[in-house]
Write a structure and sequence with these properties.
Blueprint lengths: L3 H21 L6 H15 L3 H14 L4 H13 L3 H8 L10 H13 L3 H14 L3 H14 L2 H14 L4 H14 L4 H11 L4 H15 L4 H14 L3 H14 L4 H17 L9 H10 L4 H13 L3 H14 L4 H13 L3 H14 L4 H14 L3 H15 L4 H13 L3 H14 L4 H13 L3 H14 L4 H13 L2
Helix pairs in contact: 1-2, 1-4, 2-3, 3-4, 4-5, 5-6, 6-7, 7-8, 8-9, 9-10, 10-11, 10-13, 10-14, 11-12, 12-13, 13-14, 13-15, 14-15, 15-16, 15-17, 16-17, 17-18, 18-19, 19-20, 20-21, 21-22, 21-23, 22-23, 23-24, 23-25, 24-25, 25-26, 25-27, 26-27
């Protein structure tokens, strides 16, 4: 509730005026009414919202014409965590018809909290129809997303955008929704978002250009798949799922659409903290039914079984994908990762080295080989170090390559070198959280506690919801209890 604090200040002033009127004897009241108002005023000052609501309800019995007392009581009851009482007060005869947009938004929120979403939506839709409340529209957007009703969410977002056309985030959200449902309509909104807010420019332009390029083929299903892939790359997996689903509806024989839909459903499942093992399997099976030689469908089916920890089945599909696309280094990376998880480290290493042989100028594959050695604690000096150095040679200004060398040096107990590489990583990219973590670790081992604490704290704050923050917190707790 955007305006709650302002409303509460107004309510306190109303209470104070009511109390003064009662004390001066300017109205027909009783000692009990004056006391109720005084108690309500003191309770509100102390932020005892439920107490203030109860006293106001008592006072309203003596002042039935003072509707603002019950309105304020309803606000206080809601603020105190009692939505049922708030509803009772705000729905009383003669009260609801007098409620302004902010109080109606609050009433809808109260219904939402007690689980009566239909009533909440009805109230907010009434406000939205009057064009009276951006808050109501935002609630309708949120409900649309929660229920997967993207058309309804889009309608409310468009209404919000008309109220505030200079809001880049609204333009961007409309662009994302159109990208999932009607991609060509997304173009103008994404372009506007990029123009208004530079922080949205990169993502907006990538999605914009992907849609525009795909649309040149004049195949709606292909455009939806291209848009969905970009949405997935942005982490918008629910919208990506919608795009892929619409692609399968536009062209039921399009195997790539089915394969990506299977992957998207697994990603949505993961993002929602669920673990439905069969989620996505039917779509991947359909993709392979349409084309058993699809590299994409085989690789995604392999990834599906890898997530289920059925490494034998996963290996079957990934080996088939690699055989179908023998010049694609990424196929061997995926297969190597799987074999490593299955415990076959020599085969995992061989596949990673095969990827390098196919793309010897790509530093990524050298980094992956070095990470393989670090993760499995094998051949740090013999395998990880040469691979890390080659990645540095190919991409000397990459924070990933610099930080990888810092990790290797930490494993080799060369803490001064680790400190130098980690420092270079964060100098190249000041937002690169792993660099701060490994810089802090280097100072721990160099016995410089002040610097260690400084950089571990920076790592913790640079990316608060990441594994980096978790590890930095553990080290701070251990070394600086």
């Amino acid at each position: 509730m955007v305006k709650t604090n302002r409303n509460l200040h107004i309510a306190l002033r109303i209470l104070l005026v009511s109390l003064l009127v009662a004390c001066l004897g300017l109205g027909a009241t009783s000692h009990a009414a004056s006391k109720a108002l005084a108690n309500a005023f003191q309770s509100a000052k102390a932020e005892d919202w439920l107490g203030a609501a109860s006293y106001l309800k008592s006072a309203s019995n003596y002042y039935p014409w003072r509707r603002e007392l019950l309105m304020t009581a309803g606000r206080y009851a809601f603020l105190g965590g009692d939505p049922k009482t708030a509803i009772n007060y705000l729905e009383m005869p003669g009260i609801k018809d007098q409620l302004g947009p902010d109080d109606l938004v609050l009433l809808g929120e109260a219904y939402q909290q007690i689980g009566d979403l239909a009533k909440a939506v009805d109230i907010w839709q009434g406000l939205a129809g009057q064009g009276a409340s951006p808050q109501a529209l935002q609630h309708l957007v949120d409900i649309g997303f929660q229920q997967g009703d993207y058309i309804a969410a889009l309608e409310s977002l468009l209404a919000l955008t008309r109220l505030n056309p200079s809001d880049a985030h609204l333009q961007y959200q409309v662009g994302l929704l159109y990208a999932a449902t009607d991609p060509l309509k997304a173009l103008s909104f994404l372009a506007t978002a990029a123009e208004i807010d530079p922080s949205l420019a990169e993502n907006s332009r990538k999605l914009h250009d992907e849609i525009r390029t795909a649309s040149l083929f004049d195949q709606p299903a292909y455009t939806l798949v291209s848009s969905g892939r970009q949405l997935g790359g942005l982490g918008e997996w629910q919208l990506a799922e919608q795009a892929f689903m619409r692609a399968t509806e536009a062209d039921p024989d399009y195997q790539d659409a089915w394969a990506f839909l299977g992957e998207a459903r697994q990603q949505v499942d993961k993002s929602e903290g669920q673990n439905a093992p069969d989620n996505g399997l039917a779509e991947l099976t359909q993709a392979l039914k349409l084309d058993s030689k699809s590299v994409l469908a085989n690789s995604l089916m392999g990834l599906y079984w890898e997530r289920q920890q059925d490494y034998a089945q996963a290996q079957t599909y990934l080996e088939r994908a690699a055989a179908l696309s023998p010049e694609d280094p990424y196929m061997y990376v995926q297969l190597g990762s799987l074999l490593s998880k299955a415990g076959d480290l020599p085969a995992g290493q061989a596949n990673l080295q095969k990827a390098i042989s196919l793309a010897p100028e790509n530093p990524l594959f050298y980094r992956l080989l070095a990470e393989f050695a670090l993760d499995n604690q094998i051949q740090i000096r013999e395998l990880a170090l040469p691979a890390g150095r080659q990645a540095m040679k190919l991409d000397p200004h990459s924070p990933d390559s610099l930080d990888l060398m810092a990790k290797i040096m930490l494993e080799l107990s060369d803490y001064h070198a680790a400190e130098q590489y980690a420092r270079q990583a964060v100098e190249v990219s000041p937002e690169y959280a792993p660099g701060y973590l490994h810089l802090g670790m280097a100072y721990v081992f160099l016995n410089q506690p002040d610097l260690a604490r400084k950089w571990l704290d920076r790592a913790q704050k640079a990316d608060p919801d990441s594994w980096v923050a978790t590890q930095a917190t553990r080290m701070l707790d251990y070394y600086f209890p």
